[in-house]
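Protocol step 4 of 6: record predicted structures for both targets in the notebook before any analysis. Target 1:
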Amino acid sequence: MDDTEKSREAPGAGDDEPGGLPGDENDGPEQAGADSSGAPHRRPSYVFLGVVAAVVLALDVGTKAWAELALSASDGNAPPVVVLIDRTLSLALAYNEGGAWGLFQSADATIRRPFFLVVSLLAIGFIVSLYRKLLPTQWALRWGLPLVLGGALGNLSDRVARSGVVDFILYRADWVGTMNEWIGYVVSDWTKTEYWPTFNVADIAICVGVGLMAVDMLISHRVQPSSGGADGAGGQRGESHPSGPTQSVPPPESSTEPSQLATTTDS
């Protein structure tokens, strides 16, 4: 009987070893603020955000100052138009007191100006707060947010220093006219023209930045399934470790050992 009892205790004897304590293998990268690969998350620096935004702001302010000097009317003459590409791209000075596509341009100045100032400040605050939360893999947002920030600061400076935003880049294309015709079927007072609304360097930076934000959204949706699969695989691998709470139960094969040992002892 002594040999039998010792044999029965043998299958579960290794469950109390120090290496089999539950949770030991989960301590490490996660507690240190790292990802599943063990590499720590490095948040983007505000230096990069500030440098890119400052470059965009400088280009925008500089080009607007040049446009007001070179493209303004003088001696009662019509404002000059500089043609860069015939029937496609030209430079002509314009002031936009509203938003994109001249939205709210006819609204009262006491309402319109504070409205755009508040919206711009909220957008800037959101960009700065979101940038610090980016992951190292979000390269599109890492570039997109500074571009949007620089463009927002450029147009905000116009709203503070002038009555409207300085625009000077004029683009024309047949597809613009077709688009405006289709919009005209929905909006009765829509202006049907082949010219895109006049814009500036800040608007270009904002559009490119928003495009990169859209790219980040598409990439995130594609990465989620693969990352979920990796987590699932990791979970399955974790279940095979002896440290899990259910691993102390002997495998099904060992359930026949006590009866075999009892038969041997009786014999």
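Target 2:
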Amino acid sequence: MKTAECAAMPGERLQKACSISVRIVYVYTGYCSTKSAYTYKMPDMPLKFECYCASLRQASRAISQKYDAALRDTGLTITQFTLLNMIAHMPQPRVNDLAEALAMDQTSLSRTLRTMERDGLIAEVRGTDKRESRWVLGAQGQQRFKRALPMWRTAQKSVEKLLGADAQRISSAAYELSTRLSE
């Protein structure tokens, strides 16, 4: 597809039409015209970013995809698996407890917890303070967590194999970074 043809297409249609086979992305600035459109070829491998945040987010997405694929048959994502694991090992955690432990914002976490509650994976229980919500595993959550655990272990071993001798060092560096940034 030629640049002029793509320039006349709105955003999403443009991306689909122009990037399917040639992996070319058209970026727009301002109004849609051939003067405001420019192209670049996307590499076949991930980009190496100078920005630490972009690099870590890229790695996070890549590893999340690997774990999500491993857990697919259970119907859980790695985020849900992690929350089930946390709730199973913490005594009736509050949203604040989970958000702090996972370095997540409470709004996103609350939305995820409500979805998991709707699906019967977890249940809300009232704390000693009536305004306080606490979470426990539901029967469905216990079953799916138990079923997912061997799949998670397989994914974990696969990642360890990919990382080789650097696995523990990378894990420790990620923990250290999280700790320093949360201070």
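Step 5 preliminary note on target 2. The beta strands are 24-28, 37-41, 122-126, 133-137. Helices lie at 3-7, 11-19, 52-71, 78-89, 95-102, 106-118, 139-163, 167-181.
Proceed to step 6 after PI sign-off.
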